Amino acid sequence: MSEKTYEVRTYGCQMNVHDSERLSGLLEGAGYVRAPEGADGDADVVVFNTCAVRENADNKLYGNLGRLAPMKTKRPGMQIAVGGCLAQKDRDTIVKKAPWVDVVFGTHNIGKLPVLLERARVQEEAQVEIAESLEAFPSTLPTRRESAYAAWVSISVGCNNTCTFCIVPALRGKEKDRRTGDILAEIEALVAEGVSEITLLGQNVNAYGSDIGDREAFSKLLRACGKIEGLERVRFTSPHPRDFTDDVIAAMAETPNVMPQLHMPLQSGSDTVLKAMRRSYRQERFLGIIEKVRAAMPHAAISTDIIVGFPGETEEDFEQTMHTVREARFAQAFTFQYSKRPGTPAATMEDQIPKEVVQERYMRLVALQEEISWEENKKQVGRTVDVMVAEGEGRKDGATHRLSGRAPDNRLVHFTKPDQDVRPGDVVTVEITYAAPHHLLAEGPSKAVRRTRAGDAWERRTAQPQQGAGVLLGLPKIGVPEPLPAVTGGCSVQ
Question: Is the pLDDT score of 229 beyond 60?
């Protein structure tokens, strides 16, 4: 009897990507194997890990489910499961609209998936189980990591903010922090497996400690990461300006393995719009944080998220966003046109901005940020940087005979392939010779190549016969681990 296969399709933010790693680990622990790449629904179990961020998220889900219906008819025993934020939100309607779905589960009980699949098979009816609160911290679940050398580490789940454009707190609940000892134990276990870069992950990552009553818990955690031998790079995502305190900046600057990179969502540069969004900071506060970060880490690369066309946004409000972008000089900005999210206060606000106005403003903002990104990248020309070699980052590497990877500040670097053998996870020292808005080139010979334990881990993984690429770790991919699975949307975008 051949082994049963599974496929997990991920939509949304980094938290969903990490949850999908856990879902994969659970299914493999239950005896399933990953379906080959390009299976496109031709698996025994297809899991949709959904996002409720976008207005058309449900249409996308039901469209995909509809395409699987005839496949399921032709394949007796095939099962379909829907989880994630949209499942938490639309628990009562998914099976009604798509009665061929076997399992619906929420954000708080992903650990139940194998049991629910088996129950649906035995009882021959859909199983809908949505927990209203967290049953167990997800990091206790088995995880199939997508990378041998980089990993996500979740430090909290949920969010205590009430941003008017965001439905995530309603779906993932109030913030719940992990014990610091458990986080550090997981990181040490990952490093022992060969991981050299970790990303601390939370819906509001630098609010860590609010659940345990310690306002400096996040900076202490960063400093503790600096003491873990073998851990070369520490990143985190996504922080909130409200909780970005001076002790965090000091910890970033003084802890050698915390990378000089910061992704901090702006959302809008207008104080009026920020107030309507219920963002508890204003333009001056945001720019003040950036000024302090750059004073402590002059070469830090700062990126952000920006929403264009929030309800009530005037041309003057938009110009304040443009002004903030000029002042902040972001290395990169993820820019989004506002779209209604059912269930959020913003969706029913008056003065919804016409689509054509939003589009015109969006194009102006993108053009400005492209110009700034290119100018900031040009400043990197002539610098010598250590690049951690990535897997799958450079789509044209084969044709150009280059490799790709990330500099400490998380900029993408394409570089000439060294003469000696280099593996993902190894570190190559190069000199930047050319800059484009979204990447850097190092066209000369490498200055040094350092083979690492992370490269050894990648080599071990690829030498083992297995379905798909992944690393199963019983205790446990925002830097950001590479490569990332493709995701769409995300709670950080709005």
Answer: yes
